[in-house]
Design a protein that fits this description.
Length: 206
């Protein structure tokens, strides 16, 4: 059980356009495009020449910036030093989507949104497939970690659990937290046991 903390007057927010990833200079406060040409699509290349399509989540892993490029159902990899090229880990096109685990270009996702690193793995929520998946970037391999393509709200073993369009994911203290959007719930997966539970939140009305 978790209790909601008192309201705060401080907060942090972030935003990106449909086809850019933006960079905030913490010294000057200036925001400028970091990657993306402004054209919707999936094309690798130099940071300012690459095409992106609705980038929605990002995380740093293995000295690269991994971006969930939702509209192309792909995962893109960007350099952190402002030099180099954007590459595609998995995903092939604007209209190439599905639910196929595997390696390389055979992999199909469907509008993934969130991504997180923890316990030595990269987790992503394959939103329209109602699943949580693991991506091994060096091998370009993706496999289902929890959930079923059929939407629902079922706790238990991760293979039997069901979600409904999960939109966010994070890892802390050996627990995978999932924002289960259409179930209006926060779900937890104990990474050691693989058991899924629903987080009980109290004092919502206070």
């Amino acid at each position: 059980m978790i209790r909601r903390p008192p309201r705060s007057t401080q907060g942090v927010s972030s935003a990106a356009s449909d086809v850019y990833k933006r960079q905030l200079d913490l010294v000057s406060g200036a925001i400028r495009p970091y990657a993306g040409s402004g054209v919707e699509g999936i094309r690798d290349g130099l940071l300012d020449e690459a095409h992106l399509a609705q980038p929605s989540g990002l995380v740093v892993a293995d000295d690269r910036l991994l971006v969930v490029d939702s509209e192309t159902s792909s995962i893109r990899s960007l350099p952190l030093n402002g030099q180099g090229e954007v590459t595609t880990v998995v995903g092939t096109g604007l209209f190439d989507f599905g639910d196929v685990d595997g390696r390389g270009d055979v992999v199909r996702l469907q509008h993934p949104l969130g991504i997180a690193v923890g316990e030595g793995r990269v987790f992503l929520v394959d939103t329209f497939n109602n699943k949580v998946k693991v991506i091994e970037t060096s091998e370009r391999r993706v496999w289902t970690f929890a959930g079923d393509v059929v939407a629902g709200h079922i706790d238990g073993a991760k293979e039997d659990a069901r979600f409904h369009e999960p939109g966010g994911v994070g890892v802390a203290h050996g627990v995978l937290f999932i924002a289960d959007t259409n179930n209006h719930a926060i779900r937890r997966v104990q990474l050691e046991t693989g058991r899924v539970t629903t987080l009980e939140i109290c004092d919502i009305g206070e």
